[in-house]
Amino acid sequence: MTGRFPQVRPRRLRATPAMRRLVAETRLHPAELVLPMFIREGATDAVDISSMPGVQQHSLDSFRRALVEAAGQGIGGVNLFGVPTTKDATGSGATDPDGILNVAIRVAKEEVGDDLVVQSDLCLDEFTDHGHCGVLATDGSVDNDATLLRYRDMAVAQAEAGAELVCLSGMMDGQIAAARDALDVAGHTGTALLAYAAKYASAFYGPFREAVSSSLVGDRRTYQIDAANGRQGLREVALDVDEGADVVMVKPAMSYLDVLAETAATSPVPVWAYQISGEYAMITAAAQNGWIDRDAAAMESLVGIKRAGADAILTYFAVDIARELNQEAGLRTSGTTAAVAGIASTGKAPE
Ligand code: PBG
């Protein structure tokens, strides 16, 4: 700065909405948003999830309607979780072709399979009576390698139901290699794998436990990463890439944006982030109290996640935000003076 006043004035690029729009480095698009959905076995109507206002456990009918709505807004995919009526020690419902998650995959493929990517959660926690992501050894610990055998069968069951992207969220060592091998042996070489690679043990999963009617007592700290550790997250990502992950994910998003940014800087495969239940619940609850603007806060949180490096984002706001983005785009293309002027001056329609 020379003299009494600044010569460099960053405010110039913030002066008008048009200028701010032009210089924006980060844009959201509906196609990069994925909606997580819960399908409850035996439900005749959708059931509200009290800790996630606006999110429901779907009946098969309400699920179909929600899928059509999601496809109509042009989001990229749906990520399915099953809520079974019965659970047991090994989570048999997960590998039963008539288990709720496998049924939901088939329904989604049939209803919107041409428009959306159908993703399935591959983890045992929704299906086990103890609520852990794997099967237990006799001493009560989660048995890594016995769990891999269950995951192999689950991967094949989901691929057979039609899942295009099988998403492993259980944080067992070697789970990506195990699922890849099982799929390839069964001839499902075209089924892609998403690794919840850097998945942290988080207090923000709270509302999800209600969403899937979880039976968990205790915590998942022997398999999910401790919040204190960035290096472990990066190592998990590297291992999953080596094992054949087609996409890697960092989860949760908000408290782990540094891990996301570092992963995005080096990963050879797409990097996604999961804005989880607690992140959704906090924004929604504050908005319900009149303390923040829901849509603006949701948009800002997602722009932040994308700016940090996410190529796509799993978020419970997916359809709402897509609708907002589409409305904004619609306002610009429908009969605006700019569009008309474009035709008049160039003789052809603007792109
Ligand atoms: C476990 C799983 C969890 C979530 C997705 N998959 C919960 C957990 O690890 O305890 C959390 C998603 C969310 O909170 O939105 N299969």
Structural account:
Mean pLDDT is 94; it is low at 337-351. It is globular, with a radius of gyration of 22 Å. The chain has helices at residues 17-23, 60-72, 100-112, 144-161, 175-185, 206-211, 230-243, 257-266, 277-288, 294-308, 318-333, 337-346; strands spanning 33-40, 47-48, 56-58, 77-83, 117-122, 165-168, 192-199, 247-251, 271-275, 312-315. Helix 2 (60-72) packs parallel to helix 3, helix 4 (144-161) packs across helix 5 and helix 7 runs parallel beside helix 8. It has an 8-stranded parallel β-barrel, surrounded by 9 helices. Helix content is 41%, strand content 15%. It has a single domain, classed as Aldolase class I (TIM Barrel), CATH 3.20.20. Strand 2 and strand 3 (56-58) form a beta hairpin. With 351 residues, it is an alpha/beta fold. Residues 121, 123, 125, 133, 169, 205, 208, 220, 276-277 line the site of ligand PBG.
What gyration radius follows from the Cα positions, in whole Å?
Answer: 22 Å
| Unreliable sequence segments | 337-351
Question: Quick one: CATH superfamily?
Answer: Aldolase class I
Q: Kindly identify the CATH topology.
A: TIM Barrel
What key attributes describe this structure?
10 strands; TIM Barrel; 351 residues; disordered C terminus; single chain; binds ligand PBG; 12 helices; alpha/beta; 15% strand; 8-stranded parallel barrel; globular
Short description:
The protein has 351 residues and is of the alpha/beta class.
Topology, pairings included?
Blueprint lengths: L16 H7 L9 E8 L6 E2 L7 E3 L1 H13 L4 E7 L16 H13 L4 E6 L21 H18 L3 E4 L6 H11 L6 E8 L6 H6 L18 H14 L3 E5 L5 H10 L4 E5 L1 H12 L5 H15 L3 E4 L2 H16 L3 H10 L5
Parallel strand pairs: 1-3, 1-4, 1-10, 4-5, 5-6, 6-7, 7-8, 8-9, 9-10
Antiparallel strand pairs: 2-3
Bound molecules: ligand PBG.
Ligand PBG binds next to loops.
